[in-house]
Amino acid sequence: MAYDTVLYDVADRICTIALNRPEKLNAWTRQMHIDLKDAMHRAGADPEVRAIILTGAGRGFCAGADMGGLQAIGAGGGSADRSTKAAQALQGGSTLPEFKMSYSYFPAIPKFIIAAINGPAAGLGFVIPLYADLRFAGESAVFTTAFAQRGLIAEHGVSWLLPRLVGLPAAMDLLCSARKFRAPEALALGLVSRVIPDDKLMAETRAYATLLANTVSPRSVTVMKRQIWEAEFQTLAEATTQANHEMELSFQTADFKEGVAHFLEKRAARFTGQ
């Protein structure tokens, strides 16, 4: 299946999804929203996929909402309705209602998502990768929340998510000033985990995804991803109770047996996700 605004490729257990309006720096449109959501759920449901890379085609990640669409909303000539059908909960993914919103569905995808930020990431293009499980940035990446410069507000849950990544004072700064900042500062703030030379960004991101695809239990990754995201809404006691339950379940799985066997036999793991 081909998409109008995203590229979709699966190879070696890794799904690469690229926002694909390079002539517009991948500016966000309604169709891109629909295409990306479908592609993410498709990858999440594919048993051949063990990790997902999200990036942008061309020289940017996403320059934010397409200005033509914003202009139409401001003039009353377009619809501001952004409602979507609720995504079906995938096996293994979080079922919390918080992760069924229009843009907060990444935590419900039961595969590890890495955002490879390869250039400008502004507005909605800033928010989207925050919902990924990990973010790598190219050296030329430039970030801005942008909302305050458009007369808008902290959209799509970023007021909840950003302080958890960078702290409250930094989140206030980035949101209220809408200033631009570059990859080294993003790394210092904890917004991204790595800054990589532009010409090596995809290779290094893919190397990390390959590590996930080939050396760890996909079932373990799915459960731990769900635990970590859901822990934001739990007490320590609740998180521990959930972990104890999940531990008992893991003892019964083929991946647990394989995890012990490949270590004792000093060979590469052959995890099945079962």
UniProtKB/TrEMBL annotation:
<dbReference type="InterPro" id="IPR051053">
    <property type="entry name" value="ECH/Chromodomain_protein"/>
</dbReference>
<protein>
    <submittedName>
        <fullName>Enoyl-CoA hydratase</fullName>
    </submittedName>
</protein>
<dbReference type="InterPro" id="IPR029045">
    <property type="entry name" value="ClpP/crotonase-like_dom_sf"/>
</dbReference>
<dbReference type="Pfam" id="PF00378">
    <property type="entry name" value="ECH_1"/>
</dbReference>
<dbReference type="InterPro" id="IPR001753">
    <property type="entry name" value="Enoyl-CoA_hydra/iso"/>
</dbReference>
<dbReference type="GO" id="GO:0003824">
    <property type="term" value="F:catalytic activity"/>
</dbReference>
<comment type="similarity">
    <text>Belongs to the enoyl-CoA hydratase/isomerase family.</text>
</comment>
